[in-house]
Every structure is written in structure tokens, then in C-alpha cells.
Amino acid sequence: MLIHSFPLGALQTNSYLVCNEQTQEAIIIDAGANPSPLLDSVGDYEVKAILLTHAHFDHIAGLNEIRKTTGAPVYLHSAEEDWLADPNLNGARLWTMVGPFTPSENAEFSLEDGQTLDLAGFKISVLHTPGHSPGGVSFQIGEHVFSGDALFAQGIGRTDLPGGSHQQLIDGIKAKLLVLPENTTVYPGHGPRTTIGNEKLSNPYIR
């Protein structure tokens, strides 16, 4: 497995290209603005899916371009099925200073907690980790977890946006993420990667 990280757009949203060297297939996790660096790195890999940890505007700003270029279907939790087209729900109306928002078509597939996706030769566990947003999910692939805006290195996602809940976020992190092996690498929606062990030891928000 090869994991490439691309901090994209004004908010430096991490988008990930996860490649399977054996099958020459890949998945994309989150779709930040101006995704040319990510798309240029796809090369000969066939992108099988675009997985969204949630549908806040900074995680979907490049979705139309990525969809058009790769032809890959989009996966999003059912609680946010209307967010791709609605700037009131996805927060774009609150952040007009970072650029115009272009609505996207609905996701082709809905995600639910506990699902296992078989994509690009990977077994991907869907972990519902709401609180930053109602449909926030994390994706676990072996010893790697992509936590979106739930868990950061030394931090957690903000909960003052529509549909946010601090208690729900903390509960979800503890129930779904902190139970993973301590050597699990965490790839967050913003900032550097970390490990579950590091966050259990020193993250001040989840002690």
C-alpha cells in the first residue's frame, strides 16, 4: 500500500491517494480544492472510489474535478446525502472568502457504520465518528485509519458548526478510534499524521 497526502486549498485540507501496487488500483479519500497535484499523481492507477469522511465544503471543493477526471463513484454517509449541493449545510456560505462553491451531484453510494468495503483490493472498515458533522466517518485499512475532522494530532474537530456535538465527537473517538491498536497510524483531515498510541498518551482533549 502506498499512501500519498496532499494538503489542498486555502484550509490545507488533506486529501489522500491510497494505491494498491499489486492491482494497480487506487482510492481517493476526501476531495480538497484545486486537486491537480493529487490527480497528477494518479498516473496509471485506476481510481475505484472517492471516499468522503464528511461533506464540509473544504473536503468536497475538488469533487467535481476529481469525478470528471477519474470517473470514480462517490461514497458518503447517508446523514449528509444532501450536503454536496447545499452551501447552507456544507458550510460554504460561511466561508465565501475562500472562493466560490460549485454544487455536486449526489453520491452514488451511502455509507453506514460497520460496513466493510472491498475496493481496489483493500478491505475498508467504515467507522461512524460524528460530532464534527452528523455523517462524519473514519476509514480503517489495516494499520491505517483516515479520521477526517474527528481526530487530529493533539486535537479534535470543531463542534460549533451545524449538526456538531462535542460530546458525540468525544464518545465516537473513544468508542471507535481509541480502541484500535496503538500502532495504528492516523491520517487526519488537517495537519500531520499521528498514531493512536500518541493520542491516547498526550491528546489533551480525550484524556
Automatic annotation (TrEMBL):
MF-aspect GO terms: hydrolase activity; metal ion binding
Domain (Metallo-beta-lactamase): residue spans on this chain: 12-190
Lineage: Bacteria, Bacillati, Bacillota, Bacilli, Bacillales
Keyword line: Hydrolase, Metal-binding, Zinc
InterPro entries: MBL_Glyoxalase_II, Metallo-B-lactamas, RibonucZ/Hydroxyglut_hydro
Record carries keyword Disulfide bond: no
Reaction it catalyzes: 3',5'-cyclic UMP + H2O = UMP + H(+); 3',5'-cyclic CMP + H2O = CMP + H(+)
Cofactor: Zn(2+)
Protein's job: Counteracts the endogenous Pycsar antiviral defense system. Phosphodiesterase that enables metal-dependent hydrolysis of host cyclic nucleotide Pycsar defense signals such as cCMP and cUMP.
Name of the protein in question: Metal-binding protein
Organism: Ammoniphilus oxalaticus
CDD domains reported for this sequence: metallo-hydrolase-like_MBL-fold (cd06262)
Pfam families associated with the record: Lactamase_B
Stretches that traverse the bilayer: none
